[in-house]
From TrEMBL:
The keyword Hydrolase applies. It comes from the Eukaryota. It comes from Pachyramphus minor. GO terms for biological process: peptide catabolic process; proteolysis; regulation of blood pressure. GO terms for cellular component: cytoplasm; extracellular space; plasma membrane. InterPro entries: Peptidase_M1_aminopeptidases, Peptidase_M1_dom, Peptidase_M4/M1_CTD_sf. Residues 5-102 form the Peptidase M1 membrane alanine aminopeptidase domain. GO terms for molecular function: metalloaminopeptidase activity; peptide binding; zinc ion binding. Keywords: Aminopeptidase, Hydrolase, Protease. This is LCAP aminopeptidase.
Length: 172
């Protein structure tokens, strides 16, 4: 419950146009300090949980083990983690490409789903809680690679989870 409260507080901050990406280039030590705030840590943790759920616990853990082995006693960049995940998925999913859409964009997407019979149409757009005119910038080009999971009437929660990656503005 405490973690959910933290996530919702971070999402509230991230839904403002004055938010910042989890990862960005910095020019000064002040900018480094600004980057390491609650939003970065909570959103980062949420993104790792999202990735673990999408890849499965076993695949995610194997990717973490490869990452730790490859970078023990050394330095690393965020791409190194995504490269380790790509190594484990054997190219079946470009984890780096997917995760960069999350860590390099500020904010998060709103996904609208409309069901007509057996067809579900999906559309994504950036979610803004309120527009702050003094900080407003157009984010129309923002596109996230959103991992979605779903079940059908032929499945139960433990045996048949389907996955879909929404990597366009809309999908079916």
């Amino acid at each position: 419950e405490d973690f959910l409260n933290l996530i919702f507080k971070a999402m509230m901050k991230d839904s403002l146009n004055s938010s910042h990406p989890v990862s960005s280039a910095v020019q000064s030590s002040e900018q480094i300090e600004e980057m390491f705030d609650a939003l970065s840590y909570i959103k980062g943790a949420s993104l790792l949980l999202m990735l673990k759920h999408y890849l499965t616990k076993e695949v995610f853990q194997a990717g973490i083990e490869v990452y730790l082995h490859n970078h023990n006693y050394g330095t690393a960049q965020s791409d190194d983690l995504w490269d380790s995940m790509n190594e484990i998925t054997n190219g079946t999913l470009d984890v780096k490409k997917m995760m960069k859409t999350w860590i390099l964009h500020k904010g998060f997407p709103l996904v609208t789903a409309v069901r007509k019979g057996k067809t579900v149409s999906l559309q994504q757009e950036k979610f803004l809680y309120c527009v702050e005119p003094e900080n407003w910038t157009s984010d129309a080009s923002y596109l996230w690679h959103i991992p979605l999971t779903y079940i059908t009437s032929r499945c139960n929660f433990t045996h048949c989870t389907n996955a879909y990656l929404l990597d366009q503005k809309s999908g079916t």
